[in-house]
């Protein structure tokens, strides 16, 4: 009789299976682990604020005060957390962000214009007795990168031919608000015979106009999400580089054989160069290896701006998520060919609504990410939806209206800094009707941050950030 069978006779099946699993685990893993978290979100969705708050709370998590639902912290197992050095040109500007949030008056971080990275080492006392036989102390290394949301929208181009990209853009440019805003640009494109050689000066003019249109589409007024190529609006080191002189051809592909110097082929070549030299490099260096993912979505923005913004956001999120690798991921696979095995969809800025609306915000988020989530679940990976606020900037208050007590919020308006107390309204749990979209029913206000102290962080400084951390990391200790 094998040892395992004999032990089962003595100790029972469950206990022996459990022990067997743990021994295998320890032998395979050692106790130290490494996890890379993908923080994914369109521009202004809250990535930088999330990374700042998560890092700041984790650095203080040995005190066990601000993250009650992060079990490792609340059970006093954390010995210490520290930042690890990264290449100084790419260090996440944590200090600046933390100082600005702690200033008087506090301010939000600026929009991100380049790539940066945070590396954390969480040193802790393992809970299981078996793990403690190997070592009393273990370390989890956590890597997170931050980047401009605009660049994310380039990832889907990796899997698309120029023709596919143009055909998708054709559909988008047929819809409001793009169709009307781009009428002149579309007419100028249509007047060109793309099967013939095109003057470079003419291409430059069309490109300049296209970039202006992209800025308009993503402006506060329209809030569109599908802005491609991303480097056209945020070039960073590619400023003035011809690599980013790229726009889609909205007219259908010219028939017949096309010469290499035809307008169509010239634009197609630019697309291929951009894909190869900009997107592929970025993807290979920074996006190919992730173990866990947070997808941040600003649901309230879509409600404020209306159906076109909602549809565009849904399309962008679904498209972007197809660029990541999903699948169940054991330790060895994580080492050899990492895949994302757990995804947290988070509706950010939950402090813009009253606490009784958080559940609705979870449900509304599900509407936006339904298609993307279905595909992930098909791959057998774990997902969840959660409304959260990385830096809680409002306080709950009550008001009496027509003899009834209603829940309100108090805070400072982001735009003017003036104090406000308001009833922000309800979050729908179904897609708003045509009438609701047009009734200006949704007017969620942006708030200035409430001061986030550098020391003595408390649970009331965030909403559910601890649950998010527990979901993302809890099973790795
Ligand atoms: N009230 C509140 N507002 C938030 C929170 N997180 C983000 N915001 C708001 O959202 C804005 C954008 O947040 P960022 O973290 O800079 O967004 P981002 O995704 O990094 O944006 P890009 O760098 O442009 O891609 C902030 O300036 C705040 O107005 C939050 O937890 N609470
Ligand atoms: Mg940012």
Automatic annotation (TrEMBL):
A Pfam family the protein falls into: DUF463
Superkingdom classification of source: Bacteria
InterPro entries for the chain: YcjX-like
Name of this protein: YcjX family protein
């Amino acid at each position: 009789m094998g040892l395992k069978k004999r032990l089962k006779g003595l100790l029972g099946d469950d206990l022996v299976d459990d022990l067997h699993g743990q021994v295998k685990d320890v032998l395979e893993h050692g106790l130290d682990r490494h996890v890379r978290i993908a923080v994914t979100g369109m521009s202004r969705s809250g990535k930088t604020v999330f990374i700042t708050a998560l890092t700041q709370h984790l650095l203080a998590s040995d005190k066990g005060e601000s993250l009650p639902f992060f079990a490792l912290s609340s059970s006093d197992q954390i010995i210490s957390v520290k930042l690890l050095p990264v290449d100084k040109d790419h260090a996440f500007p944590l200090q600046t962000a933390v100082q600005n949030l702690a200033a008087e008056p506090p301010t939000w971080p600026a929009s991100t214009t380049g790539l940066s990275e945070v590396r954390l080492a969480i040193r802790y006392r393992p809970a299981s007795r078996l793990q403690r036989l190997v070592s009393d102390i273990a370390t989890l290394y956590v890597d997170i990168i931050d980047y401009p949301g605009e660049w994310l929208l380039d990832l889907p181009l990796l899997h698309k031919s120029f023709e596919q990209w143009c055909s998708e853009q054709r559909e988008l440019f047929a819809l409001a608000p793009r169709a009307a805003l781009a009428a002149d640009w579309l007419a100028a494109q249509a007047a060109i015979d793309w099967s013939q050689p095109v003057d470079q000066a003419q291409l430059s003019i069309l490109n300049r106009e296209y970039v202006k249109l992209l800025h308009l589409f993503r402006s506060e007024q329209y809030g569109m999400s599908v802005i491609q190529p991303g480097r056209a609006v945020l070039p960073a080191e590619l400023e003035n580089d011809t690599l980013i002189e790229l726009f889609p051809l909205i007219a259908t592909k010219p028939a017949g054989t096309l010469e290499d110097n035809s307008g169509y082929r010239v634009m197609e070549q630019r697309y291929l160069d951009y894909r190869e030299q900009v997107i592929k490099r970025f993807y290979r260096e920074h996006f190919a290896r992730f173990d866990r993912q947070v997808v941040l979505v600003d649901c309230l923005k879509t409600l404020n701006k209306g159906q076109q913004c909602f549809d565009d956001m849904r399309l962008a999120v679904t498209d972007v998520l197809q660029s990541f690798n999903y699948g169940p991921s054991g330790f060895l696979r994580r080492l050899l060919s990492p895949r994302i095995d757990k995804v947290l969809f988070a509706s950010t800025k939950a402090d813009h609504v009253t606490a009784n609306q958080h559940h609705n915000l979870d449900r509304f988020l599900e509407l936006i990410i339904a298609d993307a989530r279905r595909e992930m679940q098909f791959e057998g990976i774990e997902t969840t939806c959660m409304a959260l606020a990385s830096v809680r900037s409002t306080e709950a208050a009550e008001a009496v209206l027509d003899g009834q007590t209603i829940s309100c919020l108090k805070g400072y308006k982001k735009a003017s800094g003036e104090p406000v107390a308001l009833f922000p309204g309800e979050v729908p749990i179904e897609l708003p009707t045509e009438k609701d979209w047009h009734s200006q029913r949704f007017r969620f206000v942006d708030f200035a941050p409430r001061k986030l102290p550098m020391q003595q962080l408390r649970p009331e400084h965030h909403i559910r950030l601890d649950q998010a951390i527990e979901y993302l990391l809890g099973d790795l200790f």
